[in-house]
Amino acid sequence: MFDMFGMLGKVKEVQAKIKEAQDKLQHITVTSESGAGLVKATVNGQRKLLKIEIDDSILNTNDRDMVNDLVVAAVNSAMESANEKAQEELKKNTEGLLPNIPGLDLGNFGM
């Protein structure tokens, strides 16, 4: 027989674990670079950009497009890495609480 109250308890437990993991995401930081370290971007696990560092040597150039490209590359790389770490954290915090359902992606719960 289906245990509705047991299932509701499990859902609440999963929600609490997801909330706990979401709270931890703000403390996870990832820094990525582009242009051999000329541009560095730091992002947290909630995919918020925290810091951009641009080497002075490229700020004095007239190649604005290159600087823009390096900033975009560094930020995108940091965002991807932060997303991967966030998904790992959510998976770790909810492991064993949910059945293995193909296609179930908890990554969107953190963002």
TrEMBL record:
<comment type="similarity">
    <text>Belongs to the YbaB/EbfC family.</text>
</comment>
<dbReference type="InterPro" id="IPR004401">
    <property type="entry name" value="YbaB/EbfC"/>
</dbReference>
<comment type="subunit">
    <text>Homodimer.</text>
</comment>
<keyword id="KW-0238">DNA-binding</keyword>
<dbReference type="GO" id="GO:0003677">
    <property type="term" value="F:DNA binding"/>
</dbReference>
<protein>
    <recommendedName>
        <fullName>Nucleoid-associated protein FVR03_13120</fullName>
    </recommendedName>
</protein>
<keyword id="KW-0963">Cytoplasm</keyword>
<dbReference type="InterPro" id="IPR036894">
    <property type="entry name" value="YbaB-like_sf"/>
</dbReference>
<dbReference type="Pfam" id="PF02575">
    <property type="entry name" value="YbaB_DNA_bd"/>
</dbReference>
<dbReference type="GO" id="GO:0043590">
    <property type="term" value="C:bacterial nucleoid"/>
</dbReference>
<comment type="function">
    <text>Binds to DNA and alters its conformation. May be involved in regulation of gene expression, nucleoid organization and DNA protection.</text>
</comment>
<dbReference type="GO" id="GO:0005829">
    <property type="term" value="C:cytosol"/>
</dbReference>
